[in-house]
Write a structure and sequence with these properties.
- The protein is an alpha/beta fold.
- The chain has two domains: about 5-140, 3-Layer(aba) Sandwich (Rossmann fold); about 145-310, Alpha-Beta Complex (L-2-Hydroxyisocaproate Dehydrogenase, Chain A, domain 2).
- About 45% of the residues lie in helices and about 20% in strands.
- The protein is globular, with a radius of gyration of 19 Å.
């Protein structure tokens, strides 16, 4: 009988909640939790195991990197998260030594695994994982703006009083301050936002798009300022990506993938709609963007590239 092994590196709020979401959906027969705080990882694994009577059969354990051997999918949530007032890019240099240490070891024990990076700043840390791993780019990708896109749909759903699942919309670029709301590709019942508002609700209020984009971009900061971290929605986005990979769905998700000439951008990881399957990222999809959105995407890429340049000049102590 074929089994599926998932290893989650980092048993903090995001890692442990992601393990719960994956377990509850029955996506894996084995889940390994690894954390520098081994007692925390074991406690989380024990707590999850105690729900065995309510889910499909799954073996949940804690362990070391060696215990991740022969994983099908490795999810990296480890690292130092942002404190109130810090941006995702502010914490980058704190996480470089962690990734430089763990990624080669993970590849050593699971050379055929797909790597999903969730730790922030996700685009740059995914680029580092790709660099440190030596794996093909399709097998290393980040959670990107899958969560931001869900936030976008959620806020639009409330504004237009329709099911979020029936809104086709994307947040693209950096998972962070330079992310772009792709209004040109946003559709409700096949109509643009402007057309839907005109035909169904009357015209949009002044500044509507700017307000919605601001809410999406700052959602994580609002939550962190109130409770110190985010975990539920990001765990659901992780579960959705895992589902697309393990079930070979060829789903279109805004994961962070390596650009190689798309929109004139190369050698940087950031989010665009991608076909996600058992092979990882099969391809980045072109979507209709107006000139302002295209320029914003290029600017987002430049911001991320400047972080990579900073990394290359930074030598961790």
């Amino acid at each position: 009988m074929q089994t599926t092994k998932i290893s989650i590196i980092g048993a903090g709020f995001v890692g442990s909640t992601s393990a719960f979401a994956i377990m509850d959906e029955g996506l894996s027969s084995e889940i390994v939790l690894v954390d520098v705080n081994m007692e925390k990882a074991e406690a989380e694994a024990m707590d999850l195991r105690h729900g065995a009577a309510f889910v499909k059969a799954v073996d949940i354990v804690s362990g070391t990197i060696e215990d991740t051997k022969n994983s099908d999918l490795i999810i990296i949530t480890a690292g130092i998260g942002p404190k109130p007032g810090e941006s995702r890019l502010d914490i980058l240099k704190k996480n470089i030594p962690i990734f430089k240490s763990i990624v080669p070891q993970l590849v050593k024990y699971s050379p055929k695994a797909i790597f999903l990076v969730v730790s922030n700043p996700v685009d740059v840390l995914t680029y580092l994982t790709y660099t440190y791993s030596g794996l093909p780019s399709n097998r290393v990708f980040g959670s990107g703006t899958v969560l931001d896109t869900s936030r976008f749909k959620s806020i639009l759903s409330k504004s237009f009083d329709v099911d979020a699942r029936n809104i086709h919309a994307y947040i693209i670029g950096e998972h962070g301050d330079s992310e772009i709301a792709a209004w040109s590709a946003t559709k409700i019942a096949g109509m643009s936002v402007d057309q839907y508002a005109l035909d169904v609700m009357g015209k949009l209020e002044p500044g509507f798009k700017e307000r919605i984009h601001h809410e999406v971009k700052n959602a994580a900061y609002e939550i962190i300022n109130r409770k110190g971290y985010t975990n539920y929605a990001v765990a659901l986005s992780v579960r959705r990506i895992v589902e697309a990979v393990l079930r070979d769905e060829k789903s279109i998700l805004t994961v962070s993938a390596l650009f190689s000439g798309q929109e004139g951008i190369s050698d940087v990881y950031m989010a665009m709609p991608c076909v996600v399957s058992r092979n990882g990222v099969e391809r980045i999809l072109p979507i209709p963007l107006d000139p302002y959105e295209k320029e914003s995407l290029r600017k987002s890429a430049e911001i991320l590239k400047s972080s990579i340049i900073d990394i290359e000049s930074f030598q961790p102590g």
